[in-house]
Amino acid sequence: MAQYNITVDDEILKGLFSGDKGMSQLLEQVLNQVLHAQASEQLHAEPYERSDDRQGYRNGTRPHPLTTRVGALTLRVPRLRNGNFFTELFARYQRSEQALLLTLVEMVIQGVSTRKITAITEELCVAEFSKSTVSDLCKRLDPIVEAWNGRNLREKRYPFVLVDVIMLKIREDGRVRSRTAMIATGVNEEGYREILGIMLGDSESEASWSEFFTWLKSRDLRGVDIVVSDSHAGLVKALQSQFQGATWQRCQTHFMRNFLDATPKSLHDELYGKVRAILDAPDVLTARLLMDQVVSDDNEKAPKAIQILENGFDDITAVLSLPERYRKRLRTTNGMERMNEEIRRRDRVIRIYPNRASVLRLIGALLMEMEEKWQSGHKYLDMADYFIWREEQKKQAKEDSKITKIS
Hints:
By secondary structure, the protein is of the alpha/beta class. It has 15 helices and 7 strands. A 5-stranded mixed beta sheet has the order 5-4-3-6-7, with helices on both faces. The protein has a two-stranded antiparallel sheet with strand order 1-2. A hairpin with a 2-residue loop joins strand 1 (58-68) and strand 2. The protein is elongated.
């Protein structure tokens, strides 16, 4: 790390104890000296210094407003005659914010942005970005995101996997096309959440989901026991072929929406309460008894809704076979919905991505940061009871197999 010699005016030091602006003035002076020193490093020479190693010449400075926690600063950013001055000082954005900025700049360069987008990039960059500059910045960020998204997963097992999809618009071949971003998260054997990967697809077809799951397996995803998702088109068929033996838990929140859409409005409150009781049942047997009662009482009043309930019963109650402490977190994809909200916050700014690479860069960088927070926080689930339950299930299966053979 570079070391800089910083001098501070006596008046500014006195101001630290006599006014509210003392800290901001001190920070402004220090940062301006850092910028001056960084310019000297890049040029290999101080101002007016004669040196055989000199790489260029200064051309004055430009003001750069910077808002900080201690107040508004005005920095004097050096100008260089034969090149752009670069400083890590302004890399105050996390990877996801850098990716967002790069995507915005790409849109401006390709001439597909609105005046609003141009204004945003000018506000953030305070400089013009050339295609070569953007390319260089992408070369720094893209390999980091690509390495994370393609990392090997063999070190851990992932008993619980949640998958979801988000629709995006991407400009391809001069046209705006709708594409899917398929995302998977997992709960590993230690109880921590991880984002397993993101892949772009052309649709929600079985082929797209199969390609996604095959890719995850090629990275050594293993130990999958429960998969939670909405009933996306093609997803269930892909799961059945790619994760044979795993149980599918249909998202109860999405199911309830589908159920109520088919329910007469006059019966919404009544049937919602009844189905909620089924989902909150202590075990599958009780849930089935409650469902049978609902079918008996309401089949004639809401035949379409009851048909949906009967057809989906096994999928929405799969989680009831697990120990109770795991059911709340695995009954829905609500956790992924919150993740999607963060993606949508940035997606609303971009609206139409300039290319596929920008999607993976922006969303991938954001997902990396989310996962870092998950890994540094508390465990998502305590997995001890799960593994005890799992062993009991295996023993019971062996006993049932012996009984079957004898009979």
